[in-house]
Structures are given as structure tokens and as C-alpha cells.
Amino acid sequence: MAIDMRAAWNRISPGYQAQHQISVDAAHYGPFMPSEAELRLLGHVAGRRILELGCGGGQCSVAFARQGALAAGIDLSDEQIAFARRLAEEQGAAVAFEQGDAAELDRFAAASFDIVFSAYALHYVLAIEQCLAGVSRVLVPGGLFVFSLDHPMREVFWDEEADENSLIAARSYWQRGAMEWQWSGGGPAMRSFHRTIGDWVDLLHAAGLQVQRILEPEPQLDRAERISWADSYDLEMVRLIPQMVIFVARNVNGRRATVATDYR
Length: 264
Ligand SMILES: C[S@@+](CC[C@H](N)C(=O)[O-])C[C@H]1O[C@@H](n2cnc3c(N)ncnc32)[C@H](O)[C@@H]1O
Hints:
Elements: H1 5-20, H2 36-39, E1 49-53, H3 59-66, E2 70-75, H4 78-91, E3 95-99, E4 113-119, H5 128-138, E5 139-150, H6 152-156, E6 158-159, E7 164-165, E8 177-182, E9 189-194, H7 197-206, E10 209-215, H8 225-228, H9 235-240, E11 244-251
Parallel strand pairs: 1-2, 1-4, 2-3, 4-5
Antiparallel strand pairs: 5-11, 6-7, 8-9, 10-11
The protein binds S-adenosylmethionine (SAM).
């Protein structure tokens, strides 16, 4: 199937933004997840240079700018970027938003960001090694990389034949690679990439990004997004199976990250 993710997100964007009405009060990590105001993974962002990958409608970057950060965002979708630029203008927030692929960060100078952040986007990136090498290059030594993804266990319960979630495991956790599916409500064909938690740790390590924490927050079923995500999430599944994972990593800048080998 020929899948054009740029065109797909251009098509989805207007409905997505109208449906979810994402807040600019604090950066978020995805549906049912505690926000950055609750998790505090980034520390104080005032004066920090932050790059957001797959920034979508720009709400997280606008939230960072409102807190005094020097924020920039990149997204594959022209429509998402157009929305983000309008939002920043309405909010009086100075954010440099650019259309582009998160795997192609050459436009940004080396060591030009203190933090790279991404919410709920990197499972769409095919050239993930190239993306992570770019993250490592644009971060200052010791810089922070924090990102959330669809939890790979959630994907085990994705029934590709039926194109829907199921409470019966439908694919192997170890069946890596592309997953093709259709956006809900007759939307475009989409492609995301299944990688295990161990794969992510290895990919980060290979890029010189040392994992410090892996968070698997229990979904908060009473959050407002219960309503706007109702057609994409079965609440019983959300109660039973992890939906999102968040990684916190530090740039060790090309030096090999030290891995403890003493498991006693
Ligand atoms: C689920 S949305 C999340 C957007 C935003 N981070 C948020 O939380 O609202 C995923 C975003 O990833 C973007 N995206 C998909 N593939 C991408 C790629 N290769 N490079 C950059 N952005 C990408 C899409 O255009 C979309 O805006």
C-alpha cells in the first residue's frame, strides 16, 4: 500500500485539532498521561533552548515558550505547522516552527539545544537511527532528550485484520517493523513502527543517548481526553494495558554510555 504520511497528517490535522483542543498550559505526553506540570521531567525550562520533534499543532512548544523557553518545533505536516504558527501568534509566543522530517535535523546547528522533546510522534519515524543521531548532534553535551510513544504492549493488542483494538493479543511483541492501519472514521491509511522497549534502549545507546528513566504511567481514566479520544481507545484496554511509555535520556555526546553489567 502506498502510504504518504505527510499527506495523511495534512488531511487529519483540521479534524484532529478541532476534536482534541489541546491545552497550551503545560506540555503533554499523550492521551490519559500526566502532563509535564505533574511529571516534571524537564526541570525549569525558562531560558532553555528546546527543540520539539513531531510538534503537531505546537501546543507543547507554545507551553514551553510561555514558560520562558526558546522553543523551536519541526513536524512533517504542513497543515500541523500552519496550525502551530497560528496558535503561537494568537498566544503571543515566539516559536520557530518548521515543516520537515524528524529524521532530517541538518538545518539545526550542532549543540544548539539544551533539551529535545517529543510527545507521541517518534513511532511514526522510519529512519529512527538517523533521527536519534540528529538528536545527539543538536543537543549540548549532557543535554536532555525526553519523549513519549505508543507503548509497544498496546500494539500487541492491535488486530491488523480487523483494524481495531482487541483484548486478545493479536500480534507478537517481537514482530518488529511497520504496522499499517487506517485513521478512525474512514481516515487515511497510516504507518507506524513497532519497536520493543529493549530496542529503544539499544537505539538510544547507539546514538550516545544514555537512558536515565523509563516511565510507564498508569493511564488516568478521569482525564478530559476520555471524551475526545473515545473513538480510538477502548477504556477497558486502557485500564489493563500500558498505553504510553516515556523515555528520559542524556546526551553523552559520542562517548559510549556506561552500562552496568553486574546484575548480582
Ligand atoms: C499524534 S501527533 C502528535 C503531535 C504533537 N506532538 C502532539 O502531541 O499534539 C503525531 C505527529 O507526528 C508528526 N509526524 C509523523 N511522522 C513524522 C516525521 N517523520 N517527522 C516529523 N513529524 C512527523 C505528524 O505530522 C503529527 O503531527
